[in-house]
Amino acid sequence: MENFVYEYPTKVYFGKGAAQQHLPGILASYGPNVLLAYGGGSIKRNGVYEELTGILKAAGKTVTEFTGIMSNPTYAKVQEGAKLARENKIDLVLAVGGGSVVDCCKIVCAQAVTDEDLWDLEMVQHQAPTGTPIPLGAVVTASGTGAEMNGGAVITNEDAKIKGGMFAAAPRFAVLDPAYTLSLPRMQVLSGAFDTLSHAMETYFGRSDRDNVSDEVALAVMRSTVTNMRTLLKDINDYTARSNLMWTSAMAENGILKVGRVTDFECHQMEHQLGAYTDCNHGQGLAVLHPAYYRHIVKDAPEKFARFARSVWGVTDDDDAQAAQKGILELEAFILECGLPTKLSQLKSRAEITPELLRQVADSVNLLPNGPRQLTHDEVYQIFLECL
Ligand code: NZQ
Ligand code: ZN
Question: pTM, whole model, 2 decimals?
């Protein structure tokens, strides 16, 4: 294993009724002013808003609302939230939603305590913010990203046309009630779960020694994600499957799988830039790109791909090269089985996805060094074209 330091900052309250049971006690240890942050209004339709505002009121909190956080949250939206937090002397930000709301709030918490432009500081000067951010808590209503258990935030800078990872403090606590996810549209449930599968794959396919214990955990998370997604294909409201997926989502991004190893995440780099230009759904973008990406790198890590094929997909071929290829075919078939998109043209996009657009997207993709092989921008473009 590589050397590592591991510490866990987020306290998780998991299960049906977790907010009613635990939030009153949690809120008692924070000041009176709470920023209640959420997205486009799903929480008002499924009763979560009513439940949480009731808890906040009973706790005597003064609530300021920060609403309309969009999927693929923008840096401009971060500034809006930071201004609200400053003006209302916020003591705690409560992010209620999926990865987009949680990510936006992570940077709101850091931006509210400084006049510095955090995008410039982190993305241009490559420095970490120094101020102590406002405490953040997350109530998750859409699982998949695992954003509630890490300090990374994926933010779109619309002017720069970059969707990039910024670093901030992880939430101090996260409330994970699988029942809160039951109102999610079917496609979001499955694309969120595919995102989890992608996180475990991206971690596993990073270069590292063969016998890393983290790889065993990653393979187990992949198997469990696939099994539970298949259960949902039969009954999308299966609570046990929803709860397993809520926890594999957190497991895949809470650092456990990454202990003692380097990770790949090149497919995420491609999808993020695709998102910067098209505003496409994250999990769906990954579903389109993953098989094509893996066909490009399979020859650079045949043993690793073979182990993935045997362990996750039950491929029985003895020959590594053959098993590796079959694993990718199984992954592709699974994406189809889930009804997830397999072509870029199937993605909901705000811009027409043409070869010319894809050239611009490809040239802006961050090329990471820790996958089986470092891609070039031309190869990223080739992968995009194969997905058209
Ligand atoms: O905005 P509302 O009305 O709430 O609707 C949302 C949104 O339209 C809806 N939704 C959420 N909970 C619901 C619900 N609808 C009905 N019932 C509920 N209970 O779901 C839609 C999608 O929400 P969003 O938060 O955008 O989805 P997701 O959780 O997939 O987050 C995607 C974002 O997270 C980033 C992605 O890039 C993307 O920007 N990621 C963050 C990561 C991290 N911080 O660790 C890692 C990931 O790789 C990912 O990049
Ligand atoms: Zn992801």
Answer: 0.98
